[in-house]
Amino acid sequence: MLREFHPDWTHTDVTAPIYAESAGWDPVARMQHIDLFTWLRGDILVKADKMTMANSLELRVPFLDPRCSRSLPAAVRPEDHPHHHQVRAAARAGADRAVTLLNRAKLGFPVPIRHWLRSGELMDWAYGMIDASQARQFVDTAAVRTMLDEHRAGESDHSRRLWTVLIFMLWHAIFVEHSIVPTISEPQYPVQL
């Protein structure tokens, strides 16, 4: 959907130098290193930090502390055990019985974008964003519209790609085109007597 797509551009253009830094490490440590310097730092940790700070919470990420992560043998690191059996067992030992989250399946920060783009208000917004976008020099809007049609019909799940390009179009509309001026309404607090 990019106007200037180059098939020779790959994810390894970004990851290869970082991956080379971990030459000789065990495979789990190499995967952790790539995650730390790509996806974690540039995506998931930023989201977690913003969400917790917006709610006046301080988030601690113990497995990113080198003292903790380096002390775990490869056989019990979280990536080797998707269900985190050892970690949960250790947490259970010190947790109050009222803590039930220890038994819940691992859950990131899911948002039902897949469903929202198939029906209702967000689907209508997406079509409107594609039609109104002046980012055509970067994005093939006809290809994006086709992807949205396929997604809406249930032929393919394009939700991640669609969301990425739609947010780019929104950014372009706000900061380049100046066709959208974001407004945030102030919350209405009850009057104190």
Low-confidence stretches: none
How many strands appear in the DSSP assignment?
A: 0
Question: How far is it from the N-terminal to the C-terminal residue, by CA?
Answer: 57 Å
Number of domains: 2
Topology as H/E string?
HHHHHHHH
Gyration radius, in Å: 22 Å
Mean pLDDT over all positions: 82
Number of helices: 8
**Overall body shape:** extended
Structural class, by secondary structure, is: mainly alpha
Helix content: 40-55%
Strand content: under 5%
The biggest beta sheet reads: none
Describe the protein's architecture and organization.
The chain has 193 residues and is mostly helical. The chain has 2 domains: 12-103, no CATH class; 113-177, no CATH class. It contains 8 helices and no strands. It has helices at 12-20, 27-54, 66-69, 85-94, 113-116, 120-132, 141-153, 159-177. Helix 1 (12-20) crosses helix 2 and helix 6 (120-132) packs antiparallel against helix 7. The longest helix has 28 residues, at 27-54. It is extended and about 55 Å long. The relative contact order is 0.09.
Brief account:
With 193 residues, the protein is mainly α. The protein folds into 2 domains: 12-103, no CATH class; 113-177, no CATH class. It has helices spanning 12-20, 27-54, 66-69, 85-94, 113-116, 120-132, 141-153, 159-177.
